[in-house]
């Protein structure tokens, strides 16, 4: 390991480290614009100049210079100070002095480093360069005159997002960053270039001129737009969520978030349910909580528990889901279903529905078999991790299902689920690749498990894992890809029933069920609930309210604390950033109050602490916060032949996949741009 001296302090660093990284290890700050620890080294801003001996008597770029034994590095000499002042002076030659109207103001690296390392005066009196604005779509606002050509956005687009959408044209002072043909960007991760841009060249278009950073209350929380469980920061002013930014978590989302996570927050203000409603004479009218509870009591009066059912949605926290289960148990009903997608999960073994490899564990795999999965749209951050593994670790990916652009090379095996049986029998060439891999993994998509033979597909995945070495003492390569934030927690609570969601809807249509409670369940066809007494509890007036007889307004994910389990089974804690609008309440408080009105007895928790005690007793593993679990392996799925035929991957609009996103004007604009592109090119997602 190289030993070097930095400002008189000797330090030992890992082989392959750069001098910039060595300085960080030593606690010495090195200013930079183009360097980013998760991107390739460009070495083109020259802000990280230091003096190194032995070496030429001039400053050197520390981001691109390997650390070596015996080096003496100085970061505080007059030569270094003059070099940094010169770099900043050149950068500011053409940079417009519009900080008072720039959305990056207060969070700008150029501002901070000019104050810390600049010379405090300019000597350039010629006309500044101006650059025409670029169209990058409805999410990223451009003022390219501010651009300092750090190329972070270009490198991110290619290396992390996996799409070559951004590039540089012309040379020298005429160089410009642009999208090819100035078309809107299409990546599901494009918003991250806003965080990466060290100046105000790329900013958030929906957030433009809305707030200054020092006005905002910042709350750390968890995203619910997919099942990854990205760590986020919610910035709010008053009762409004102004923006959502990523928090760093190396094992989950690193420092990236998807565009839906970042930009769908305007949907929290639109289409909200802020008071109870009761249907009278075929029309929903406003009501008090007491009137709504009385209507529910009348609607289920005299009903046996077997004629009552519940459906759980995709965005609910564990506290509300648990209280919902306990309420229906009080009513004598055990028919509660969380699988709105109809997938055949097997709750007998927890390993059967978890992403057991872990998101970070993808980087250790050397072969990945996708089965009916579309990670680019179902879990964009996880897809970026697969891309990273293919670029840096040599991961090979094969796919059973429709051919889709996943942003990395994929060997297409065919759209026939029965290929799984051929692999098990050793008749398919990919069987040899699985057997030869050191750490192979399989990812089963929820739409593959939603086929009529989904349980057999699950069993085939289990058998492949055992036969081809996907299981060992320190490796579990069996994975299920979820797209709903609430799914794993609800499965842990056992919220599945015979017949699934289709069985409940069919019985509601036939009259076998007389009452159905919907807890944020908006991904179903509600038309079959027309002749059934329906109670909807949720935050938005989306699909679930279309046949509702009673509507109870609930808090959205930014408006309540709670536990969420991501697709790995990792327990994460969300915090309240703002309060719910109007008369909306947290889900568990609604069910506690309702239980006291409709009987037969109130739920046994009067405070959040009481609820947590009951929840931890039901699910002891909730005590292990932010730990990826090691689920016990066992037998799961059901024996039977996997039927020949394609895996029907339905097109799911990435920007319109849940009630909050569907209420978002920004997401609607993105969806329209995507549809126009698909119509122009004849593609289907």
Automatic annotation (TrEMBL):
Tell me where in this chain the 4Fe-4S Mo/W bis-MGD-type domain is found: 216-272
- Entry's CDD domains? fer2, MopB_Res-Cmplx1_Nad11
The protein's Enzyme Commission number: 7.1.1.-
Question: Which GO molecular function annotation, any one, does this entry have?
Answer: 4 iron, 4 sulfur cluster binding
- The residue ranges of the 2Fe-2S ferredoxin-type domain are 2-79
> What's one GO BP annotation on this UniProt entry?
ATP synthesis coupled electron transport
Q: Which domain of life is it from?
A: Bacteria
Q: Which Pfam families does the record associate with it?
A: Fer2_4, Fer4_NDSU1, Fer4_Nqo3, Molybdopterin, NADH-G_4Fe-4S_3, NADH_dhqG_C
Q: Which positions fall inside the 4Fe-4S His(Cys)3-ligated-type domain?
A: 79-118
Q: Which GO terms describe its cellular component?
A: membrane
Free-text remark on how the cofactor is bound: Binds 1 [2Fe-2S] cluster per subunit.
Cofactor(s) named in the record:
[4Fe-4S] cluster; [2Fe-2S] cluster
Reactions catalysed according to its record: a quinone + NADH + 5 H(+)(in) = a quinol + NAD(+) + 4 H(+)(out)
Family annotation (Gene3D superfamilies):
3.10.20.740, 3.30.70.20, 3.40.50.740, Dimethylsulfoxide Reductase, domain 2
PANTHER family cross-referenced by the UniProt entry: NADH-UBIQUINONE OXIDOREDUCTASE 75 KDA SUBUNIT, MITOCHONDRIAL, RESPIRATORY NITRATE REDUCTASE
Task of the protein = NDH-1 shuttles electrons from NADH, via FMN and iron-sulfur (Fe-S) centers, to quinones in the respiratory chain. Couples the redox reaction to proton translocation (for every two electrons transferred, four hydrogen ions are translocated across the cytoplasmic membrane), and thus conserves the redox energy in a proton gradient.
What's the protein name?
NADH-quinone oxidoreductase
Q: Where does this protein come from, organism-wise?
A: Iodidimonas nitroreducens
């Amino acid at each position: 390991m190289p030993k070097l001296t930095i400002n008189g302090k000797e330090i030992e660093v890992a082989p392959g480290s750069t001098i910039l990284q060595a300085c960080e290890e030593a606690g010495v700050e090195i200013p930079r614009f183009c360097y980013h620890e998760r991107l390739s080294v460009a070495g083109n801003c020259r802000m990280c100049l230091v003096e190194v001996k032995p070496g030429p008597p001039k400053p050197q770029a520390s981001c691109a210079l390997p650390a070596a034994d015996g080096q003496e590095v100085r970061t505080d000499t007059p030569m270094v100070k003059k070099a940094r002042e010169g770099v900043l002076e050149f950068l500011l030659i053409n940079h417009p002095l519009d900080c008072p109207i720039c959305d990056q103001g207060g969070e700008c690296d150029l501002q901070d480093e000019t104050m810390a390392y600049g010379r405090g005066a300019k000597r350039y009196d010629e006309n500044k360069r101006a650059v025409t604005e670029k169209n990058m779509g409805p999410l990223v606002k451009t003022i390219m005159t501010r651009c300092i050509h750090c190329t972070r956005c270009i490198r991110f687009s290619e290396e992390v997002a996996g799409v070559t959408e951004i590039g540089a044209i012309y040379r020298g002072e005429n160089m410009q960053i642009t999208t090819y043909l100035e078309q809107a960007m299409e990546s599901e991760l494009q918003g991250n270039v806003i965080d990466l841009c060290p100046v105000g060249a790329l900013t958030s278009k929906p957030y433009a001129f809305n707030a200054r950073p020092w006005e905002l209350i910042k709350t750390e929380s968890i995203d619910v737009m997919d099942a990854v469980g990205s760590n986020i920061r919610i910035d709010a002013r008053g009762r409004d969520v102004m923006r959502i930014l990523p928090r760093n978590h190396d094992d989950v989302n690193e420092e990236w978030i998807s565009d839906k996570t970042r930009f769908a927050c305007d949907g929290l203000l639109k289409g909200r349910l802020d008071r109870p409603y009761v249907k009278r004479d075929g029309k929903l009218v406003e009501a008090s909580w007491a009137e709504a509870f009385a209507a529910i009591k009348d609607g289920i009066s005299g009903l046996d528990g077997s004629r009552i059912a519940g459906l759980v949605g995709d965005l609910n926290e564990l506290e509300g889901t648990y209280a919902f289960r306990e309420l229906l148990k009080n009513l004598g009903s055990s028919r509660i279903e969380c699988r709105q997608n109809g997938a055949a999960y097997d709750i007998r073994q927890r390993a059967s529905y978890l992403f057991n490899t872990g998101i970070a564990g993808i980087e250790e795999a050397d072969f990945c078999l996708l089965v009916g999965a579309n990670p680019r749209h179902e879990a964009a951050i996880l897809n970026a991790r697969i891309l990273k593994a293919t670029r840096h670790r040599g991961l090979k990916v094969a796919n059973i299902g429709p051919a889709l652009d996943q942003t990395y090379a994929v060997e297409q095996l065919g759209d026939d689920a029965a290929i799984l049986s051929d692999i098990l029998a050793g008749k398919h060439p990919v069987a040899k690749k699985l057997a030869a891999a050191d750490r192979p993994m399989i990812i089963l998509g929820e739409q593959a498990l939603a086929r009529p033979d989904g349980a057999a597909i699950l069993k085939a995945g289990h058998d492949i894992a055992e036969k081809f070495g996907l299981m060992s003492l320190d490796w579990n390569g069996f994975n299920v890809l979820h797209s709903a934030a609430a799914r794993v927690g609800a499965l842990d609570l056992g919220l599945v029933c015979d017949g699934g969601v289709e069985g409940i809807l069919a019985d509601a249509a036939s009259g076998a069920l007389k009452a159905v409670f919907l807890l944020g369940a908006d991904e179903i066809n509600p038309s079959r609930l027309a002749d059934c007494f329906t109670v909807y509890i949720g935050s938005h007036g989306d699909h679930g309210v279309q046949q509702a007889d009673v509507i109870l307004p609930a808090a959205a994910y930014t408006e309540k604390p709670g536990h969420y389990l991501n697709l790995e089974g990792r327990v994460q804690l969300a915090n309240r950033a703002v309060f719910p609008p109007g008369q909306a309440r947290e889900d568990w408080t609604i069910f506690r109050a309702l239980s006291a009105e409709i009987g037969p007895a109130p739920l046994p928790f009067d405070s959040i602490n009481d609820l947590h005690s009951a929840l931890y007793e039901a699910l002891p593993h909730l005590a292990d916060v932010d730990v990826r679990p090691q689920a016990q392996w066992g037998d799961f799925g059901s024996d039977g032949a996997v039927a020949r035929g394609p895996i029907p991957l339905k097109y799911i609009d990435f920007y319109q996949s849940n009630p909050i996103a569907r209420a978002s004007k920004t997401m609607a604009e993105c969806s329209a741009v995507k549809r126009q592109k698909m119509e122009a090119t004849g593609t289907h997602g």
